[in-house]
Amino acid sequence: MKNIVPEQARVYLPVVGCDEVFPVGRVYCVGRNYAEHAREMGDDPDRDPPFFFTKDASCVVPASLSETTHITYPTATSQLEYEVELVVAIGKGGSNLTLKQASEAVLGYAVGLDMTRRDLQAQAKKKGRPWEVGKSFDESAPIGPIFLKNAELDERVKEAEIGLKVNQELKQISHISHLTWSIEEVLCKLSEVFELRPGDLIMTGTPENVGAVKVGDEMLAWVEHLDKICVKVTD
């Protein structure tokens, strides 16, 4: 059979240390998975279970570790905000995973940005509507190369510093150990409602002090042991 329209291009992320690439499938995001960020957004982190939303795979922008990556300021918003996140790449699928199976499902890790049209998200929340308009838009997920998991990296990442600067000014700083729900717990909960598949990406949540950027601003985002990405907002 022939396609009636051209097939959309698939997004691939490079993998550090090898010639293979990671074909991006689905992108799941965890809402308010750091206590202080949950509080700044008006939630009670001690009471709320993890919840999930999605970005389309086409939102992913492969971000270089050595060069500045450019994203365009999106349409329909006047409040584009950054959220630095640890990204988990899934190598094995499954439903209703145990903690051990969840750990084995992880192929590797990367640093990413969950860019958000906060004003549109707030309007949607106020009316009880889905968040996609505020979250799932073009170039809303710059993500660096994937670092393959091994025992040493796994332990280091779980204690790693995570942070973000805008124009060299520190904005976000925390540690992965401050996640309300651990990586394995997130995967277990997510696999209760979706069957995870190889190629899925999980954005695990952002620390407190999210904020807005404008055209010309440059964001430096990092997770310790996973290097850093530099992303500039353009017209």
Structure description:
The protein contains six helices and 18 strands. It has a single domain, classed as Fumarylacetoacetate hydrolase, domain 2 (Alpha-Beta Complex), CATH 3.90.850. It has helices at residues 35-40, 99-105, 118-126, 132-135, 151-157, 183-193; strands at 12-14, 21-23, 27-31, 51-55, 60-62, 68-72, 80-82, 84-90, 106-113, 116-117, 141-143, 147-148, 161-166, 169-175, 201-203, 211-213, 218-223, 228-234. Helix 2 crosses helix 6 (183-193). Helices cover 19% and strands 34% of the residues. With 235 residues, it is an alpha+beta fold. The strands form five sheets. A six-stranded mixed β-sheet has the order 4-3-15-8-9-12. A five-stranded mixed β-sheet has the order 6-18-17-13-14, with no helix packed on it. A three-stranded antiparallel β-sheet has the order 10-7-16.
What descriptive keywords fit this protein?
single chain, 235 residues, alpha+beta, Fumarylacetoacetate hydrolase, domain 2, six-stranded mixed β-sheet, five-stranded mixed β-sheet, 6 helices, globular, Fumarylacetoacetase_C_sf, acetylpyruvate hydrolase activity, hydrolase
